[in-house]
Amino acid sequence: MSSASLASDGAPVPVPPALPHVYLITIDTLRSDHVRCYGYERIETPSLDQLAKDGVRFAEAFTPSPITNSSHASILTGLLPSSHGVSDFGVPLAGAHVTLAELLRKQGYLTAAFIGAVILDSKSLAPGLDRGFDYYDNFPEKPDEKSRWGRVERRGMDVVRRAEGWLDAHQTDPHFVWVHLYDPHDPYEPPPPYDERYKERPYDGEIAYADSALADFLSYLKKQNWYEGALIIVVGDHGEGLGEHGEDTHGIFLYDSTTHVPLILKLPQAKQAGKVVGEQVRTVDILPTVLDLTQTSASPKSDGTSLLTLVAGNEETSRTAFGETDYPLRFGWAPLRSIRQNGYKFIEAPRPELYDLGTDPGETRNRYVPWDATTGKLRKALSEQRGKAPATAERSPGAVSSGTVSELRALGYLDASDARSATDVPEPSLLPDPKDKILVQNLLHTAMMAREGGQTKQARSALEKALGVDGDYPVALRQLGQLEMDSGNYKDALPYLKRLCDLRPNDAGAALDYGRALSLGGDFERARAVLAKSLRQEANQPDARLLLGQMALKAAHYKSAEDEFASTLLLQPANEQAQIGLAKALLGQRKFADARKLLETSTASGTQNAELFELLEQAYRALGRPADANRAQERARSMRQGKTRN
Ligand SMILES: [Zn+2]
Questions:
Q1: What is the pTM for the complete model shown?
Q2: Is the separation of the CB atoms in 462 and 248 below 8 Å?
């Protein structure tokens, strides 16, 4: 349908002279019941309230996913996670799924995105999400910052100022700008004066602060005379558990606490201002709505439907909201699926759940019985929806690279290596029910945030508590082992990592950690045995080869060091540590010509590694080429000086 149907309120609708500017503002981790205009009186959110007055507020809006990447991919594609395939961090959005930015750009829009956390960085954790954006404001690849600000997270005011600066320089009509405010995500550390004002409720303080950043952006739009004609969408990507159902944060469960989000739509010329839509809607409805309002005729496959019929009052149906989360898989627990329809919610889990939301909005009384008619109907609709999802082959295979692991952990999420240790189970329904494990998840989350904040003691205590609940829990064993290694307590790391290897004899990552701890503790013989056994099972392990090479080098076993480093380079030709190791092994065997050849190649690659030039200098001197040696020495010296200057 076209936007002309908005005339159904009887008012004459002038034909808009041009396409409206479109602003999408996503606020991370925002529970709808913690916003003033949604009835929460203990907070002040004047900007959201004003937008609701100028626009349409959807009282019952739901995200299909409680994690940031999947949820944003759904907003930007109008597809459910099982359709777009971004079921986890770092999973690329496949090119087949067209994004809102691509569609608007085709329509003539200039497009830009401003993100508040590295979780949505298209170079690392959210590949493909930048598709269609003329400008996508990623984080610096090598940040100078030691603190989390600027490295993994930006304050809301920083994000909107970056957006405003870009708009100042790009006053093209029409434009589409997406602004992501990450502030309400934990850790809850609102800046002044919100830290004082919401001392006892720092989560609310972060929301109030994010609202103030929104205020800055809206007043900028007004100053530019863009506000009135613009289409503005504000939506939460998911909520926050806040202890409900035992969940402190979000990602594991599909209850309303993390799936019910605020959604406000301010239409051009404030049409339908102040309207509240009570019917159930979904964040996958956003894309079709924007296309509808910008007269974008392309209608890509979507799991949502334009909201304009509801806004105009021509529809009274409650739309079915599906929910999905695979995040429990990272912990070795069963993934969950849900359906929310006609006042009921059914959650498919090892122990299924059914809630009558009319009498039990808090979802506290599970009424599930297998033979119940409502259960049967909802279960059938859920499995029909699952049947529609494309085969996994259509999704991009994705893995988080090791460089992004520390960023992921800094934000409090488990990384892929944790998952590998935990999910070697063929059938998800045989995995533990997350309901039985949520206490452990909270402890792991606490430990990760403590580690990020440099509070080793708190992290250790939380992990020990998790092991107290489940003494053989692989994720906790691995994390404790790594924590002790990072603290230099190699001996203390050993029992955890040995236990992990005993429990998971096929886990190459566990063997590598155990081998590294043994090696750092000086027990080379056992380290070699552990790594050799792991390599017999899985030969392609460059990190294990590298470690074996370094141990051989230390023991002056140059020939076997040469073999290990050469194997590493076969798997990872650009690995500089392996190049250095191989060069040392060759020099140790007086194979100077071979060393020179290797080092001339590796130093020609534009490397900034001074050690490679120093080794090249050694090779030249041994070969009787002092002029070349001096040149290499000079290069090494200027690199080292450059480093200290920076
Ligand atoms: Zn989020």
A1: 0.81
A2: no
